[in-house]
């Protein structure tokens, strides 16, 4: 019997992967110019990290984690997101002693056991950034600017930014009191999970997907209306910073993030063209997370981009990326004893940094040209006995069919000049 891949995961085949690599190149270039350095954390961590960091009552932790005991019975989980692990690394490597702020980025797979659908997978990939050690709203704005510039460099249009603030624990307490008083008379209409949430973590009522609960909550109090003066001032200052950066946004008081660690700023970037799962990136401030995970008090802010959803959005807009195959050269050999010569030409091209391939078996000219065509290369170099006798090769542009004879010593400079 054929073994198939599990539901909700996928292979990335070479054609697609070239798009991924392009996107990853954009990530690295941008992160570099904004002064972020890469961090790689393990794919699995102790389950407790996510329970404490992301929150035991969140759907992500309570329902969506891949959790398993290791051979000694310790509970491990595949990471459902990147922030908690980066925070753990921050603490473990005493990064609070590094020059502050510490600005880190990551690209990698995350795992959530959710119901798969377009744009929602069980293994998906995020590009994320985290900044530690600075509570200024200017950093929140910089992080948002970086997120938007990422989409801009990729050429993505039609995105919208929604911002809100969930406030600090003080605001949170006032808000949850108001929320509980509002909802208590209607407890009977809540689902079983929400009845539990009401006692254990009322904030999580706001991300219930049950239509009954959603209906009861449409008019419910929102965190933005319960900000303390300090959080309100931070949010106002953020809006000024965004203005200074020419960033337009909508304030969405109903914006609720599915993770418990947020304090203050929260934001999401949406793209209309990709269906129900339209959040292509999201983040916010988490000023208590380092402490919650056992480190010294350290403010933090960051975001994560869903790479699959970003690629879907680009595809929806018909935005193509440079096709690596198009850059290549295929070397065709014609006639007895030319195979060796073709090998030398291919090697010289490769050593000059030009993507080159050839037919290994020395088949007929037509077959080789067909092969070149199927690979979608831009140029074919024809190594024939006659040309060799003149110290030349023939160079054919596949798009126009135009063919010229060039001296072998001119081949590489010419290809380079055309590529530039
Ligand atoms: P998140 O909102 O859970 O935040 O995920 C960020 C992005 O990851 C989403 O906006 C979405 O594009 C993508 N994503 C999430 N789940 C899936 C899925 N099942 N399939 C495909 N894409 C998905 C976080 O993960 C936070 N760690 C972000 C953050 C960083 N906040 C502060 N720093």
Folded structure, characterized:
The chain has 420 residues and is an alpha+beta fold. The chain has two domains: 14-168 and 228-316, BirA Bifunctional Protein, domain 2, CATH 3.30.930; 324-419, Anticodon-binding domain (Rossmann fold, 3-Layer(aba) Sandwich). Helix content is 39%, strand content 21%. Helix 1 runs antiparallel to helix 5 and helix 5 runs parallel beside helix 9. The protein starts with 13 loop residues before the first helix and ends with a helix. The model has no long low-confidence stretch (mean pLDDT 94). It binds histidyl-adenosine monophosphate. Residues 81-83, 112, 114, 119-121, 124, 126, 128, 130, 258-259, 279-284, 302-304, 306, 308-309 line the site of histidyl-adenosine monophosphate.
Rg value: 28 Å
CATH-level-2 architecture of the largest domain: 2-Layer Sandwich
- Low-confidence region ranges: none
Number of strands: 16
* Beta-strand residue percentage: 15-25%
In CATH's first tier, which class of the largest domain applies?
Alpha Beta
Measure the end-to-end span.
Answer: 50 Å
Jot down its keywords:
420 residues; BirA Bifunctional Protein, domain 2; 2 domains; 39% helix; five-stranded mixed sheet; eight-stranded mixed sheet; single chain; Rossmann fold; binds histidyl-adenosine monophosphate; alpha+beta
Question: What's a concise summary of this model?
Answer:
The protein has 420 residues and is an alpha+beta fold.
């Amino acid at each position: 019997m054929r073994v198939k891949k599990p539901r909700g995961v996928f292979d990335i085949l070479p054609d697609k992967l070239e798009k991924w690599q392009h996107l990853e190149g954009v990530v690295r270039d941008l992160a570099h110019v904004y002064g972020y350095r890469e961090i790689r954390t393990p794919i699995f961590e102790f389950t407790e990290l996510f329970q404490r960091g992301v929150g035991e009552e969140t759907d992500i932790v309570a329902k969506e984690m891949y959790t398993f005991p290791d051979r000694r019975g310790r509970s491990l989980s595949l990471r459902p997101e990147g922030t908690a692990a980066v925070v753990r690394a921050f603490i473990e490597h005493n990064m609070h002693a590094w020059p502050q702020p510490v600005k880190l980025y990551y690209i990698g797979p995350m795992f959530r056991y959710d119901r798969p659908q377009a744009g929602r997978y069980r293994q998906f990939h995020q590009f994320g950034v985290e900044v530690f050690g600075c509570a200024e709203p200017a950093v929140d704005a910089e992080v948002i600017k970086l997120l938007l510039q990422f989409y801009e460099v990729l050429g993505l249009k039609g995105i919208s930014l929604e911002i809100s603030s969930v406030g600090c624990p003080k605001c949170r307490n006032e808000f949850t009191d108001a929320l509980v008083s509002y909802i208590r008379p209607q407890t009977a209409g809540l689902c079983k999970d929400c009845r539990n949430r009401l006692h254990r973590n009322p904030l999580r009522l706001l991300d219930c997907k049950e239509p009954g609960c959603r209906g009861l909550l449409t008019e419910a109090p929102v965190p933005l209306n319960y900000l303390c003066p300090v959080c309100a001032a931070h949010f106002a200052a953020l809006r000024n910073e965004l203005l200074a950066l020419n960033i337009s946004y909508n304030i969405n008081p109903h914006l609720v993030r599915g993770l418990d660690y947020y304090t203050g700023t929260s934001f999401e970037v949406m793209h209309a063209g990709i269906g129900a799962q339209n959040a292509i990136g999201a983040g916010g401030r988490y000023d208590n997370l380092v402490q919650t995970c056992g480190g010294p008090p350290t403010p933090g802010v960051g975001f994560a981009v869903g790479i699959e959803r970003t690629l879907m959005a680009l595809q929806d807009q018909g935005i193509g990326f440079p096709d690596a195959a198009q850059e290549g050269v295929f070397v065709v050999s014609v006639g007895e004893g030319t195979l060796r010569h073709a090998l030398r030409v291919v090697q010289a091209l490769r050593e000059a940094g030009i993507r080159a391939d050839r037919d290994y078996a020395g088949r007929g000219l037509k077959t080789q040209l067909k092969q070149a065509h199927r690979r979608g290369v831009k140029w074919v170099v024809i190594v024939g006995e006659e040309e060799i006798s003149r110290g030349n090769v023939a160079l054919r542009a596949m798009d126009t069919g135009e063919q010229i004879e060039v001296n072998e010593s001119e081949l590489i400079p010419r290809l380079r000049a055309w590529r530039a």
